[in-house]
Design brief:
Strand content: 15-25%
Oligomer: single chain
Strand order of the largest sheet: 1-2
Shape: rod-shaped
Radius of gyration: 46 Å
Distance between the termini: 138 Å
Helix content: 25-40%
Length: 240
Amino acid sequence: MRKNRIKTQCDECSKVLYRIPSRLKNFKYQFCNRECQGKWQSRTRNGENSSRFNGGLVTKHCLHCGESHNVTRSLGQRSKYCSYRCYWDAMHLKNTTTTQCHNCKKEIRIVNSKLKKHNHYFCGVACQRRFMRKDRIYNWISDRSKLKDFNSSLRECADSKKWRKKIFKRDNYTCKACGLKQSRRENINLNVHHIKKISDYPGLILKLWNGITLCEKCHRKTLGKEEKYEIKYLKLVYNF
């Protein structure tokens, strides 16, 4: 027998142990190793036998789907949903409002913050494009001649470019006022001048008789004096 040791046994496997008196006083249960201690705790410290047992699981009902689920008593008051999916679906319903697509009348849900910013709602980009036609845009100007960039947009369109080429070919790439001709040796900037002002006669912008080829110097002379040169240039065009 070992000196100053007291004979005892393992509470799990009943193996004979020798422990000092202080250890027997401080610890109620004795084990021969960690493995026996783990087996004993897994067998005797589960559920109501656990030192941290606080009443077991509590049955709660999900506020979104209504199904019952079990949670610990510590989470009983805070638990409102059975899963993250139900939580996010509930938040989506809370922060959105049911309305109709303004194009196809399909029922959709819109975030509440967008209801204050927009007047029309759509289920997709395709419906938005079909709905936002010319006559439904709030700032649509039916008379396109009133646009600030109306003249520039007309000059850049494909029809206007074709019209300009036809005028150059008709006048043989020659200024009808001074007779300067564009060639490979001499690179002269030629412009097509509208005899009738676009702002006064927007319907004549693509008429061949309303255009004449001028060099930059002759074209600059007509700025602000278009009416003065109308008869002169019309005669040059019709004599061609």
